[in-house]
Amino acid sequence: IRISVELHKGVANGGMAQFQEMMRQQLESSMHTELEKLLDTTTGAEREVSRKDFEGFKNLFHRFLQVKGPSIEWIKIQRPPEDSIQPYDKIAGRGLPDNVADCLNKLVVVKLNGGLGTSMGCKGPKSLISVRNENTFLDLTVQQIEHLNKTYNTDVPLVLMNSFNTDEDTKKILQKYTHHRVKIHTFNQSKYPRINKESLLPVSTNLSMNGQSAEGWYPPGHGDIYASFYNSGLLEQLIAQGKEYIFLSNIDNLGATVDLHILHHLVSQPNGKRCEFIMEVTDKTRADVKGGTLIQYEGKLRLLEIAQVPKAHVDEFKSVSKFKIFNTNNLWISLAAIKKLQEQKAMDLEVIVNPKTLDGGQNVVQLETAVGAAIKCFDNALGINVPRSRFLPVKTTSDLLLVMSNLYSLDAGSLTMSPRREFPTTPHVKLGSSFTKVQEYLTRFESIPDMLELDHLTVSGDVTLGKNVSLKGTVIIIANHGDRIDIPAGSMLENKIVSGNLRIMDH
Known about the structure:
Elements: H1 2-39, H2 44-66, E1 85-87, H3 88-92, H4 100-104, E2 107-113, E3 130-132, E4 135-136, H5 137-152, E5 158-162, H6 167-174, E6 184-188, E7 192-193, E8 195-196, E9 217-218, H7 225-231, H8 234-240, E10 245-250, H9 260-267, E11 277-283, E12 293-297, E13 300-304, H10 314-318, E14 325-334, H11 335-343, E15 352-357, E16 363-368, E17 382-385, H12 397-404, E18 408-411, E19 414-417, E20 428-431, H13 438-444, E21 450-460, E22 463-465, E23 470-478, E24 485-487, E25 492-499, E26 503-506
Parallel strand pairs: 1-17, 2-5, 2-10, 5-6, 11-17, 20-21, 21-23, 22-24, 23-25
Antiparallel strand pairs: 3-4, 7-9, 8-16, 10-14, 11-14, 12-13, 15-16, 18-19, 25-26
Helix pairs in contact: 1-2
């Protein structure tokens, strides 16, 4: 009651702004009390880790309460200056130095490994799904780095940022790489409390990850890498070993291999002009309309995500003509700069509010951040417009079909477009809901079709494909409800529509 009387006085005396400020302080105070109670449910090392996590969460919650409406004023948005996004050809045109090994020894490869394979119907970490010749995402990553280390006689380590969802399973599997020529380190993303949408207080009553309680926690998006990498002590350790830059990417982006030209560009800058952050961007197609883009804002290069765009401007944001490029999330970042920004507490990343509904129907909010949003905090940041081949994410079984097919050849863990494909664009593949789960998808293809000359494939309904099927041009296969279509072994479908009970029409 005392609170409401105080607030009532506040409104009477100082108007709305003061009332809102008192409300904010009250919410923060309640949050801090609840977090202390949560800390008291554990002891020792776990308590210390959670205490550090909660420091980051308090900061995020504080900023969440401050934000009023979109964080971007649309009229202030400008196109980035010409020299702030360089074409890849210009960077590669400078050639490579004699001492490639010296450049590589300054590099650490970091992969975001916090995600589960649930969207593809798989249990456990997504990085452990087989994508090509029984190789998982993690296998391919290790092979790539090992190949570099052997070729140039270097010591490029691999760092995995795990989440509490993936850490245990990943660590078990890492034992199989002990005899590979690549040092592997891991650290964990923070564990933040989901908050009730109405009360804005944590839904969990203890730190345990068992049963019901596990639903109360989440890993707060990849923007958390800066704090958790720093808090883990690994960042300091790598700097002490003479490492200068990380190359960071999503583990499910099979195009994100170490590029020696970009690395050389970074390490060859004069000292006063050292570039602390490079974001690889690539040209937008209609499939990428939601991807974040680079803008110039208040004199700084900045990442603009769809979530920050006022509703009235969403269509403009999606247009390919005004915003021509999008962020691949392949990033090259200075270790020393991350350390400095963390020490100064100067990482001011936009808060992403992600609403969720728990199994019991409770509405909660997750506060998250994105790693690329930090571009505005770093000096001499640069975008490089890279070929589309550096962006080959596997988010669905449609993507999986592409990377398993003869469109790509595999060499030392790297996938490259087959030289036998006449045009370098990737076909558009849409597999229906019967193909969503990896296990089911695998039973529907006796072998992966020949797709070298494919432009577009749509498959919907109960469809199976026999061995050695060849698909060319535009192929659409639709089994109506209750029907089943089996494409016989050895079939060649070129510009065909197959529907109903196996009627084949030329398209």
